[in-house]
Design a protein that fits this description.
The structure is a single chain. The chain is of the alpha/beta class. Helices cover about 30% and strands about 20% of the residues. The protein has 11 helices and 16 strands. The chain has helices at about 15-20, 45-55, 70-75, 80-90, 105-110, 125-130, 150-160, 200, 245-255, 290-305, 320-335, and strands spanning about 5-10, 25-30, 35-40, 60-65, 95-100, 115-120, 135, 165, 180, 190, 205-210, 235-240, 265-270, 280-285, 310-315, 340. Helix 1 (about 15-20) crosses helix 6 and helix 10 runs parallel beside helix 11. The longest helix has 17 residues, at about 290-305. The N and C termini lie far apart (about 50 Å). Bound molecules: threonylcarbamoyladenylate and magnesium ion. Threonylcarbamoyladenylate (TXA) binds next to strand 5, strand 6 and strand 10. The site of threonylcarbamoyladenylate has 29 residues, from strand 5, strand 6 and strand 10.
Length: about 350
Amino acid sequence: MAVKTRVIQADRLDEAVALIKQGECVAFPTETVYGLGANALDEEAVSKIFAAKGRPADNPLIVHICSMDQIDDLTAGCHPLAKDLMRRFWPGPLSLVLPKSHQIPGIVSAGLDTVAIRMPDHPLALELIRRSELPIAAPSANISGSPSPTRAEHVLVDLDGRIPMIVDGGPTGWGVESTVLDCTCLPFRVLRPGGVTVEQLRQFAEIDIDPAVFHNGVTEKPRSPGLKYRHYAPKAEVVLVVGDRIPETINQLARSPEYAGRKIGVLAVSEHLDAYPGLTVLDLGPRHDPKTAAARLYSLLRAVDQLGLDVVFVEGFVEKEIGLAVMNRLRKAAGSRVIQS
Ligand code: TXA
Ligand code: MG
């Protein structure tokens, strides 16, 4: 049965706290993307998240906390180096995969013996966790497979009638999800790149990058179950173009018989806005500023569908710092359609 979805502002956070305590799920802003949260210790509450998103049951959730004191109850031991990373990067966009305690229901960890935990750097998220006095399990607040929401409106488009409440905290900051770091192996291993970069982590620890990070689409048995699914994708076909001759290649492709008769757009860097005569061009921000690209990415992928485009060509970024996260999301959105120019 459809529920009425209410959008509230920060001054009515009490109502969101009450819903969480009653075992309901609520969408709320974090510094990365909007999350869809519920009491992480309550299996039935968490099942409502999976139902609302249409999320596969084998994809585990991140547990959000507001204080380091919560760690001991939720985990079964934690490498001292992981503790160092918490002290350095929390609150912030870093989720640590740790051995889980018996307190974490199987539904949260999708049957794994580990749990991903993070402390978000957003006042409303922290306040929601603090006042509800609970750890909050929260995936991104989108329908499974679509781009993550960076504004309350995006959540409403995806989940209207499926969840009782959205806390509107305005646009999120980072725009891509947190870095997921597996701390149950040595060296620690990045499963999903995000706001805390590999370069930053390597100042404190030896870090591997999971090969799935660089995969185009579907991997059968990845360490992070989420990496298995096509993700972050609009309905339009996404084609990622990398290399030295990006505008030339996109212009050629757009005029080739393969794409004849289709409505074509380009996500381009600011320097190339005039390079695509006749095509709909959306601005990812300056070429050497992947942070801006990250902040705009999901909103632009949603705009692609609103504009009714059939195909969108996306200019690739250099894969360092936050550019690694941007390219990871673009590869997942593009699936096998990555073209070297
Ligand atoms: O920034 C974020 O991380 C946002 C905000 C809301 O906090 N959340 C988020 O959650 O992106 P979600 O569910 O969309 O992505 C969680 C990712 C998935 O790829 C999942 O497979 C992985 O983290 N993950 C969760 N628990 C894991 C575990 N125990 N082991 C390995 N991967 C795990
Ligand atoms: Mg997600």
